[in-house]
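Lab notebook page, bench 4
Experiment: in silico fold of construct C2
Operator: M.H.
Input chain length: 207 residues
Purpose: comparison with the prior construct
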Amino acid sequence: MIRSEPVRTRARRIPGILGAAPRRALRAFAAGPRVVVATIAKAFGYRLVRIEPRDALGEAHGAIPKGTTVFDDRVPGVVNLDPGLLAALREAATAAADDGVELFVNSGRRSPEYQDRLRRNAVAKYGSEEEAARWVATPERSIHVAGGAADIGPPASAAWLSEHGAAYGLCQIYRNEPWHYELRPEAIEHGCPPMLPDPSHDPRLRH
């Protein structure tokens, strides 16, 4: 009787063929497709670079990355604000830091194209031009497009600015937008003017 021995095999790494990359790639599968692609690309010495679609309106048009502060000189939506407004925001932010509060910018200076997209999105969301006007101005009238307004967050930071902003000439303009601040130098001596109910009541924004 002829006895057959079990066949024994052993994986052997072939020099120059991926090396440890397959193991990293297999582990990456559990983390999702993007991680898989990034892991494989890294194994070959490449790095993934995000390419915005041709019609995307990114940072150059006013999009603000999450975590941007009033001191971030790399973000166009911050550095292109009105110089007086930016200086006041930075002075206020320095004082806020003493209270353990950091002022982040959620939106600043916007391009007309970016503002137009926000307006169209608002019309789609709220169902009419009239209702959208309570939240988003047209590009022709927007204070953001002029670089004269900044949306501050998170809510705790906006609340700090609501309490202390007048000392730096910074005022909340609309009652329905506790994040929207503009420069009012006279507020340093006389306090902020009464707030408007919403942007649709602002004479500057009416056609």
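Observations: The chain is about 35% helix and 10% strand. The mean pLDDT is 84.
Next step: discuss at group meeting.
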